Amino acid sequence: MTAAVAGLPMTTATAAEGGLLRLAHLSPDTPAVDVYVDSVADPAAGQVFPGVGYGTVSEYQSVPPGTYAISMRGAGADPASPPVLATTVEVGADSARTVAGVGPFADVGLEVLEDDLTPPPAGSARLRVVAAAAGAQTLDVAVPGGPAVATDLAFADTTGYVDVPAGATSVTVTPEDGEATDLPVQVAAGSVYSVLVLDRPGGGLTVQTALDAASPGVVPSGGVEAGAGGTADSSALPLAATAAGVVLAGGAGLFLLTTRTTAAGAARAPGRHAAGRRR
Where does the record place the DUF4397 domain (predicted)? Predict the structure, then answer.
């Protein structure tokens, strides 16, 4: 699943000054959306990503430090119409942020995730888990030979990063009152990943890995070279398909949302900020 980029190109940051920004649609029953990214400091610099569906995570864009407005409208909606969701995100020099639409459609919101691109120890990979499957309201997640990644991880929540043995392995996912399922993943030594737990079309769960940072010396596709921080330079923000979820067509029933931080968001794991929840 890919999406074309339309609109004016966003200013590309230099290696010395850039932060990193990417987008994700992780709300299972929310229809495809058009995503708008605009610099508050330079309104003429912005991009539009049409038809972004469930399970899609973009590549990182190197952007100048500052405040960016993120807004989503139903796919094909008039750009002048009120957004479905809207929030702002601060991107600092040498920082990385993922703005994700999460939760069920009835309470869909935007979350700003703080991405840690620090290289893991030699022979290890680093990963976190994003619970994006409506079919599992809570999850236990573990990796064979590694630590427990999450216990009672709620739908739409995200874990912190943990170091795990590199190579071909599996993620053991156990829904509340359900059976454990081993889902295969491949994680390279020296690399950093976000592991997305998604609803499988037709029922059940699946996982997809989104590359946050590749091992030093490896040219990444989608992520940045580990240790590069905000130095990766990119002139576009193509959307990379990371899942094959079923996307519900149409944008009927979408309403203007106001941005707020929820009390639940304040209690979530560090590195995650709630915004734009449906009132």
Answer: 20-142
